[in-house]
Amino acid sequence: METFKEPIYYQNERLCMKVWQFTNTNPKSRQVAQQWHYHKEVELIIVQEGKLDIRTPDNRYHLSPGEVVLIGSNQLHHSHKPEDEPLVYIVLHVDLQPYFDPAMMMYYRHFSEMVRPLEDLNYMFLENERAKHEIGRIIVNIHAEMMDKTKGYEIAMSMHIKHLLLTLLRHDRRELLQPFGFVDATVMRPILDYVEAHLGEKIDMEDVSRSAGMSYTYFSKFFKKCVGVSFTDYVNRQRIRKAEQLLITKTDIVTDIAAAVGIENMAHFYELFKRYNGCTPKEYVRKLLRVVQ
C-alpha cells in the first residue's frame, strides 16, 4: 500500500484552483484500486450521475447524484466506483489561503484547519438538504465559469469561493465554525509555513518568536489566542499528521517515521500518536489496509 502527494495543476495560477468534470464508464470489475493520496488544496466533490465511494482514515462517504463531500487540506483519502453504471462527477481543488481577506480573518483558524479538520463539516450535508444543494450548485457554477472563461470569470470564481465559505458558516448548526479574534495572516502564515517546513527538526519557540519579531512570552500568548492551542500542542499535532501520511508508505518503519517528523523519543511518539488517533501506529496502518481490501 502506497500513498503519495498528488500535484494539483491549476487552470489559472492566480485563482489557485482546478475544477474538472470526470466521466467513468468502466464496469466495477475493471476498476483499478486508487492509492491513498493527499494534497494541500481543499477538495469538494459533487456526483451528478452514478455512485462514488470516498474513504478517509476515519470515514466512508457513499455519494449518489446530488450529494457532495468536503475533504480538507492534506487529508488522506481515496475514491472507488462501487457499481457498473456510468459515473459523472465534478471535483474542485482550491487553495483557500489567497481568499482570506480582512473580512475573513475571524474565521481564519477554522478554514486553515488549525482547530479541527474541515472534514468534520460533512455532517451538514447529511443533516441539511438545503446546505447540500447550495454547495453543490456553487461547485457546478465554478465549473461552468472555468470552462466558459467569459469576461470577468476570475471575479465570478472568487465570489463563488466566498459564497461557498459563507454557506458553510451559515449552515453550521453544530457551531464548529465560531468567529474568533482577528488574525493577521501576514504574521501568522509565515509562522505556520515555518513549522510545516521544519517538522523533521527541532522547532525552538524562542527562535520562532524572534523571527516573528515578538518576545517569547508575548508570542506564546499571541499564538494561543490566535489558534486556540499552545504552540507546542500545534507543532505536535502537525508532526502526527505528517506521520499519518508517512505511515502508509511501503518502506518506512515506525522509528524512521518518528525521526522524520522530529520525534526521537519513541515512547513520546507513541503517546502523541495514540492521543490524536486513539490507536497505535500499527493499528492505524491495519485500519487503512482493511479499507482498501
From TrEMBL:
All copies of domain HTH araC/xylS-type, residue ranges: 189-287
Cross-referenced CDD domains: cupin_RmlC-like
UniProt keyword Transcription regulation, yes or no: yes
Keywords noted in UniProt: DNA-binding, Transcription, Transcription regulation
Keyword 4Fe-4S set for record: no
Protein name: AraC family transcriptional regulator
Organism of this sequence: Paenibacillus chondroitinus
